[in-house]
Amino acid sequence: QVQLVESGGGLVQPGGSLRLSCAVSGRIFRINHMNWYRQAPGKQRELVATITSNDYTNYADSVKGRFTISRDNARNMVYLQMNSLKPADTAVYYCNVALTYYSGSYRSDGDYWGQGTQVTVSS
Fold first, then answer.
1. DSSP strands (E only) in the chain
2. CB atoms within 10 A of CB 25
3. What is the pLDDT of residue 105?
4. What is the sign, positive or negative, of the torsion defined by CA atoms of 1, 49, 62, 5?
5. Which residues, including other chains, have CB under 8 Å from residue 91's CB and lie 6 or more apart?
6. Mean pLDDT of 97-101
7. Strand partners, 19
8. What does the pLDDT read at residue 79?
9. Strand, coil or helix: what is 63?
């Protein structure tokens, strides 16, 4: 089975920084897109940042210039460096990956989510 485990959330003051990490484990053949989403109370889940297998990145307008997504293919990790945090960034952040995994003697594609990590920006 494939598992995603996020870490790095917490409470930070406005203007501060946090770095989220997501570790992907399992019988993985290849990881394709890696994404960070977030969901604030009473709001829909939104895409924050994406990084492709070619290291192309894309960001929501609300985080451009402040957040940086990166990946470590050797360790099957994805990171989200968050700087200049604002109270509006408060949410549960989720890691999401699209990957190909080994299933018996075959390969299958799947889309997986982490359990989420809380980020709270408050003074």
1. 3-7, 10-12, 18-25, 28-39, 46-51, 57-59, 67-72, 77-82, 91-103, 106-113, 117-121
2. 11
3. 86
4. positive
5. 38, 39, 40, 43, 119
6. 95
7. 81
8. 98
9. helix
**Are the C-beta atoms of 120 and 13 separated by less than 8 Å?**
no
Q: For 45-66, how does the pLDDT look when each residue is reduced to its tens digit (9 = 90+)?
A: 999 999 999 999 999 999 999 9
What distances in angstroms separate CA 13 from CA 21, 61, 69, 104, 110, one per listed residue?
Answer: 20, 22, 21, 48, 37
> What integer pLDDT is reported at residue 106 of this predicted model?
92
CB 51 within 8 A of CB 57: yes
Torsion angle, alpha carbons of 117, 64, 56, 80, to 10 = -20
Residues in the chain, total: 123
Average pLDDT value for residue range 28-45: 96
Which structure tokens are listed for 20? 């989220």
Q: In the structure encoding, which two tokens stand for residue 14, read together?
A: 């406005």
Please report the pLDDT score of residue 12 as a whole number.
98
